[in-house]
Structure prediction request, 542 residues.
Amino acid sequence: MVQFSGKSVYKGIALGTVMVFKDREEPVRRKKIEDAAAEISRIEEAGIEAKVQLKALYDKALSTVGEVSAAVFEAYQIMVEDEDYRKSIYNMVQTEMVNGEYAIAVAGDNFSRMFSAMESDYMKARAADVRNVSNRLIRILEGREESGRLLEEPAVIVAQDMTPGEIVKLDREKILAFVTVEGSSSSHTAILARMMNIPAVVGVPVDLEEIHDGMKAVVDGFQGTVIFNPDEETCIQAEQKIAREQERQSLLKYLKGKETITLDGKKIRLYANIGSASDVGYVLENDAEGVGLFRSEFLYLGREDFPTEEEQFQIYRQVAQTMGGKKVIIRTLDMGADKQADYFNLEKEENPALGLRGIRICLKRQDIFKTQLRAILRATSYGNISIMYPMIISVEEVEEIFKIVREVQGELDRAEIPYKYPEQGIMIETPAAAMVSDELAKLVDFFSIGTNDLTQYTLAADRQNHKLDDFYNPYHKAVLRMVRMTAENAHKHGKWVGICGELAADTALTEEFLQMGIDEFSVVPSMVLRLRKKIRESTWNR
Ligand code: PEP
Ligand code: MG
Prediction:
């Protein structure tokens, strides 16, 4: 028995027989050519053929895994035509007089290295996309078929890496799990695995020479582990887990696509919280009706410098597009307190939770704020985006924010950059905001109650300090009264109100929240269907 750990892409569990997909492609040979123009037209023709193949794969994916997942093949078609990529290939053919296969392989390597070196996970994942497109073009030029194997029996697929093209060609019913040595959790391959609900672990440091067809393996997407040649006890445990998981899945199946509606007919918005673009797969898989909280500050963490407007735009656009018209509420940067990055150069504070955090940083450092607003506004053209501001305490702050938003809109207008007017809401997560929520409700389109901070600030109990667990009590009357007050004030002014703090997922409080008039709940994706079940069993009764 030998165990490996990797990055989990989809939380599921499988036990079965291994099928190894080895990369059987020969290295590309460098050959001298005589006629650069002829070589370029050969490459052009390969490009046309690649687009035909990708269109066919798109159609197949559309009917098996849906539009959102199929979009990867559209993205590949665009990449085939990418100006920079093509120029780089043609230039090499003309200046070095080398064959197309070689020029494509080198350009593919260069672009993929460039993407891999970028900070953003999104751009890193594009490295695999360029490699996929390059391999396809080379295969066509060499007149080879796409490699792939037919699965006769259900199997755990183990590979160096899998392209989305290889994955959609497989029979979904015969795939028990994916294990890859390479691959990032935000790659399209990972996205596809999630969409197909296939347990998958990527980045598993296994030597493929040691693995062979017919071996047994347990793939545990909950733990991110893979066990080859499991002993009997491990197999029994895995079977028990699989049975529990099947039970959960049948519950999910029953609730998927069902309305989120109370017994007495009130329709509730049931959204999910995310921290990155790669979480969207979980949102869709769990049938959330939108994203109620995108914690955008996660894009700023674990890096050396600010994410650029372009990087942010790409991510917000990807999320909006993937959600396909469902609402996506992007919360602007909520740095400070426990979320720190050196490059912000913030002074050390005695009480960071009571210090410069959230909207306070944005109002003091408007350059940072404006960059983010530009990126979000640009992305509004690609879906149904709303903006939400954190850590508000006053009407004046909201007025100042709106002035800055108008300035940014003016800049975009002058540059003729399109955008849509988004709904704008605020988080109610300070007692001050709850207390003046009657005035705030006149200004904004919606409220989302952040019970995590509202509890901390109302009860003067640091949410980070485990020694205060007995004091940090979100059930405290003071917190619940503020939730009620906020809901009443929102409704007085015809605005909707949601909860996006952890308390939203606490099914012991669901009925009480519904009776307070909460219109929206935003919870971790894995809680969505359980909460839908609870709402469908509750009455609103007003
Ligand atoms: C909250 O405070 O409840 C909230 C949702 O925001 P965060 O947990 O990101 O502070
Ligand atoms: Mg908060």
